[in-house]
Write a structure and sequence with these properties.
Layout (H helix, E strand, L loop, with lengths): L1 H21 L9 H4 L4 H23 L5 H19 L9 H22 L6
Helix pairs in contact: 1-3, 3-4, 3-5, 4-5
Length: 123
């Protein structure tokens, strides 16, 4: 199956994103020096959801999916919104700005993906 063959990096990255975004705040104490930087979490969201979009775009492109940009960015944004909705259940706080950063990361990643692979065939 093409989904299993090409989708595993996106699935693995999604597990990583879930771990990072749903971890209890006490579980992030080892990153205390990093957390002290103002708004650093927004850059983390941009990176995490940019990565998710990148791997989804790669998988959809490999599967010759129609509108792979729509699906890769759309799924990443919906994933980010859903995470923000369920975060309070894990002792985290939901933040509309985090969801916005997720969308920014998805957009940046897709733009970079298309710039790199626009003239090349992904093999």
């Amino acid at each position: 199956m093409k989904v299993l063959r090409y989708g595993w990096p996106a699935f693995g990255w999604a597990i990583f994103v879930l771990r990072m975004t749903l971890a209890a705040p006490s579980g992030l104490s080892r990153f205390g020096w990093l957390v002290a930087i103002p708004n650093v979490d927004k850059f983390v969201h941009i990176f995490l959801f940019g990565g998710q979009t990148w791997w989804l775009a790669w998988a959809f492109l490999k599967m010759n999916a129609q509108k792979y940009g729509f699906w890769s960015v759309g799924l990443s944004v919906v994933f980010g919104i859903l995470i923000e909705i369920i975060q309070p259940s894990f002792g985290r706080s939901a933040d509309i700005w985090d969801a916005l950063a997720d969308g920014v990361g998805a957009g940046i990643a897709f733009f970079l993906f298309t710039q790199i692979f626009s003239k090349k065939t992904v093999k």
